[in-house]
Design goal:
The protein is built from six helices and four strands. It has a two-stranded parallel ribbon with strand order 1-4. The longest helix has 18 residues. The termini are far apart.
Amino acid sequence: MRSGLRGLLFPGQRELHFYNEKQSRRKLLLSRLVESGARVDIYRTSCRQGEERARQEGLSRLTEDLLDLDGHRLVFDSRQNRDQFDAQTIRRVLNKRPGESLLVYEHVDSVDEPLLWLADMAAWCHGAGGDWARRVAPMIGSVIRLDWP
């Protein structure tokens, strides 16, 4: 999957970031990813009480879910000085379940991890709604809604 994603780059392009792509290219990229069989789960919540709080609520749930699935690795696009908030949330969840997991986590530059591009594209399309949400639907495994009953 990583090499396939790198193969979609233009010469000199370092990463795929959906926001920066033209509409025709977005459609091409998305169709290639859907054909690849990629799957993305989306954790969705409201930012009414702040973006960081929403992120940490989603991250807490994601970490719990990964522990339930015996997940081993979690990789994030680095947000530099805000990475510490993610680390605190993950440690809090892991401390509630000591000895249950070999889960490791890290923050990297998205240039270095093409699978992060997949998440960016899926989230962008899902959030855009309309035709984009329809196009990305085959890639979406689950939408976990944290702010709905």
